Predict the structure.
Amino acid sequence: SLGGLAVAIGLIIDDTVVVIENIARHLEKKDSLAFQPAVQGSPADTPERRVAAALDPVGAASKEITGAVVGSTLTTVLVFLPLAFIVGVYGQFFASLSWALSIAVLVSMVISLTLIPVFAAKFLAGRPMPPPGPIYRGMAWLYELVLSLALRVPWLTLTGSLAALVIGVVLYTGIPDWRTPQEEGKEPPPLLSPLKTGLMPAMDEGAFVVDYWAPSGTPLAETEAKARIIEEVLSENPDVEAYVRRTGAELGLFATATNRGDIQVVLRPDENDPLSLLRKPVRPPFTEVEKEVHALHLDLRTTGREYIRTKYRRRSMEEVRKEIEEELAEKFTEHQMKIETVPIITDELNDLSGANKPVEVKLFGPDYHELDELAEKVGKVLKELKNTNKSIHDIDEAVYAGNPDLAVKIDGVRAARFGLTPEAVERQLNAMFFGQVATQVRESALRVTDVRVRYPDSYRFGKDRFDPQRVLNQWLLIPEGAPPLPGVAPSLGHTAALGRVVPVYALAEIKRRRTTEEQWRENQRPVHYVTAELDEEKGGDLGGVVADIHRKMQDVPLPAGYSWEMGGHYVQQKAAFKSFSVVMLVFQFRSVMLPLLIFLTQPLSLVSGLFALWITGTPLNISSYMGAILLIGLDMKNGILLVEYIQQLRHDGMELRPALLLAGRTRFRPILMTSLASILGLAPLALGIGPGAQMQQPLAIMVIGGITANMLFTRMIIPVGYLVMERRRQRKPLAV
């Protein structure tokens, strides 16, 4: 919702600007009653006459513009409201933004049609309006000249608008360089790089999450002790301001096991952030001497690396996160503690969508061991891509060795010679190492406690460390009445104090192995996940990486009954883009009620927005996609203002070409003012000022690029389209 209000800053004044500009234009008319007041001191010079003279042009101007303001605002709301009903994870992110924008625009419309005319009558009526400046007069003259030329060659103008679609396709797909020889297994370098795609924009939130997993079954106290080591690393980092840890707790969305937890880490404000520059005096960087002075005399903590602990950090969140991750990797091995650090927005997306990382390959098949082998092959594929694409990192095949186990394989034939079954051998070994319930103690009427008898630890595990040979050296009791079978050595079945016994090694063998801690299923099918992180700050392109994986996976043979598919953020991106596409199509069909020619301005505006993304290196993601929808709404809003006034002039009997020129010249100023207001209002978001501003940065860049083209070029297309449609309706030639 705060993001919606930030985006709405440049939009909520649009209606007010349009109403005030129309009132000012009426007040500029020399024949207006506001400029013909009664002579002061005459009988006609009364307060009632002055008020009536002042309200007359204001009322006329307000009445003239009401239809256009209401229509354009409601059309804009029709663009925003469907975003609140997008399903999925990303619908939850943009629903509040949609409601905030819609409510803000509606309130702005009500204020512009009620309070603004009253204030204008109070403070503007009865006084001369200042003449336009030379810059505006030059821009208006140039626009009218270009519009006049465009009306003379309408088909050429419309062809240029449609050609923008081709440019947009080229920007999205790129142009391969056919002149460069292609290396085997690699794509040819592009002559024109395509527009990158992603899911959510990368941002420096000033905070991140440390997720940690101890081995399965680790007690809470042991996990707690290991987590405190992580806290020590965080406390020693000079860029960490605060952190909060959760281990083995239960949240509203899911329950956490005793071997898992996370830490939310808050960093100090970025020293290079504009907001931080406003809060502190500018000073030069620390020198080596200043480091020593501050460390010795002020007793400030140092890291021994680059600089001392200060109020502001001088490194990006990604640098701090990587440093902490490397330090923790030195503290723990994989079997002691698995640790990952992720930004907060990524952690929330992963929790809500069920995807562990942005890049995820799902492997399906009946056997988990075969899936492990396939996962290692897919991991090699991702590592090969990592050599050519540095944005891929933290590749995880999820083939964990698990806890060390001893598998006792009993030979049923040899056990039967001693009158034993595999189940009987298992029961005796279980009693030896894990004990046996001998009796029960009733502590209360509702509580009964088992009393378990077992061998002492020194006998079960040895004095120094556990030796697997101890399992083979254990003696098993042979059931009474079991006759000795032929072929059995007497030494193996000798008589002990409690009866005949046989060693375990006589009828079983052991193997060391590590069992899988977790086995996953998806839609009742065994599944294995191979994941990787994607760093958009290093040029990560989710769409490009997925295309490379599809190309590489063609060389990975799969056994019969096994398959693979992409998961992670790519699936969420497809679902979200599909939802946004449906919203756009629904919106376009609803716009049939308006003149079809308003749609002619949108290709050029959208292509200009794509060009702004391409030239700034910003990926096409959910945020920029929403910016495209917002841009359509703004185009419709400006188009309605122009078309509505053309229809007014035509209704009053004005000829077609003069009406088009007059409407274009009259609406040029309010459209210019509202466009500049939107651009300036979105400029802080486009510059990424403030922590987390990168979330709306692609949206702002997309809208600013499209509005710039709308302001400079597309105001010619609507009059030209109106001319073509009107001439075809009248069955007259196009020449003017």
